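Risk register update: the risk of archive-format incompatibility is retired. Evidence:
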Amino acid sequence: MTDGRAAWARSYYRNTTGDELRSVPTLMGPGGRTDETHCAVESQDEPGGCETPHRSSCGGPDEYVAVAECTGGRVPDGTAEEAPLLLRSGSNPAPSAAG
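Archived output:
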């Protein structure tokens, strides 16, 4: 997402699993800049969202890539690293001026 000179990543979700999940949107930009946010995804039928902080952009939209991952909640021993990856989705390229 962009607005003026700001850039950020946003993910939307609907969690009807009955379990808490985690959403991790990541925005990767020029010069190796990366912003990542971790959000709890409550079990509910209403859609929710999660986004990275809005940062001053340092390049055009075509220089950014966004990835969102949804993982299972914490495993029984409490370590987030062992939670299963359920979904990974990447951004679409920005539309060109030619259409």
